[in-house]
């Protein structure tokens, strides 16, 4: 699969003049002012930029969690802006994994059950769920913690469970909005190594928002946002040297 | 998908036991209250009707004096005589039988045991005008009635107190200074709502009582049985006219006797208990509604609390209707569980309260069904609509919800 230096040219995601306006009337606020962006299949992209520049807004649109106000969003050549709620849900279920800054695990629910949840909605039976759930936990190094609830896990462990949940369906794209935002630098590096591994060895396209250049250094492509627009895109040829 | 949803719903209920318990509580209380109150209301009605039936519905009770609560000053109006009894029976159409009564209290003694009781002097007509069967023995013979023999038919309370488990019939007991043969035993009538234990009684021929206990020939009460085909008001009028004539009351003067129609009180009593049942039912229905509001509150609070959970589920690929279905199943399971527990508690409460209230234990299937159905509807409506609002949110808005 695609790794450093051999990024496939075919874009899996295309944004064309994407705008997003929150609210309406005099209080309306345009968070995205016409974003054009291509993400190549197999790429590892870091999204950076000052606070309020529209990074999360873009990620939410890419994750089909929110809809653009204007412009085009093509995912695998499908015009996502024309899909309805349920179709977007199915797209998320099939092709996308999302990791949040705040983990967003179900409370009082074991790590394994959290990880199994997307498979449950996909309709896998219990045996398959167990196997894939455990495999995903193993990948993030938490297979021994499968029966612990979020309250019994550290922040870094919780984020790893969240990553396991995001990859358990073998998605095409993994979206992570400040996945290390709540973690110390040591835990952050662990998460970054995990994402790099998933990108290199499982062929998952990774999009990650981060404020820290140290974390962005793990990515192959760095997209800089400013004032609701893409300011510039850097290719990081020394990607992975931190690993 | 349905099985998945069911799994998720049950899992969610088990993980949040306190929340589930609080949700159920309202329904449990509501259903238990409705079932208990309505059932006990109907049992009371049944008990009252049973007592009324034991009075006999087509009976006129005729007494000297001017009805309840009057009397007071003035000379006491004369009692009836045997000739009045005969005249009523023979001259008024629609009268099936007339039972005269002379009452006294006396101490009954048998084999060292003694029991103070009411002695009722009457004739066999007594058993004709009202339904009261014998459990053993026989009623009076004509000869015994005419000669005023010392024979008696005893109520169940007297029987158990004097004879315990032994057969009373054929035994000779003492009533004050009369030595009399027990010829019959009466079936149990139970507690009367008005006037104590109906089974605490000894029945003897009226002549025996008059001669040997009261010492006069007065008749204090006539029970007049009326043929069901006749209008009791008309019979009452004729009876009144006849008695006024016989007692020589001037036109325009007030009656010095009163006629009491049991059909009337039975109608009044039935009306009262029906009204009581409706009031109690209304109160119970209010408690069900209050229970429903309780559920709605818990559901609203928990949906707010669970909006983030809904957001997570949507974010990882659940379709809105799957999330909704989960909430619906949760609501159904909880309200059915609450309904069932409520029914069980209701039945237990009925079983405990019925004896205390001296009403029969009854099971009313309809009210159980209705209460259960209402609880299910309340649970589903109040559980479903708040969830629908949350599931309609954009996943990201649901996730941001604090
Ligand atoms: N739901 C919303 N309603 C109104 N305004 C919003 C909403 N979400 C974001 N915004 C506004 O849109 C702009 C872009 O927000 P966004 O969350 O995309 O920024 P960001 O680049 O992720 O910033 P940060 O680095 O602080 O996370 C901000 O000015 C923010 O105030
Ligand atoms: Mg952000």
Automatic annotation (TrEMBL), chain B:
Entry membrane topology: Multi-pass membrane protein
Pfam families referenced in this protein's UniProt entry, alphabetically: FtsX, MacB_PCD
Localization in the cell: Cell membrane
Main location: membrane
Domain ABC3 transporter permease C-terminal residues, every copy: 283-395
Origin: domain of life: Bacteria
Keyword Cell membrane: yes
GO CC terms of this entry: plasma membrane
Entries under InterPro entries matching the protein: ABC3_permease_C, MacB_PCD, Macrolide_Exporter_MacB
Keyword terms of this UniProt record: Cell membrane, Membrane, Transmembrane, Transmembrane helix
Protein family (similarity comment): Belongs to the ABC-4 integral membrane protein family.
Protein name per Swiss-Prot or TrEMBL: Putative ABC transport system permease protein
Species of the source: Sphingomonas yantingensis
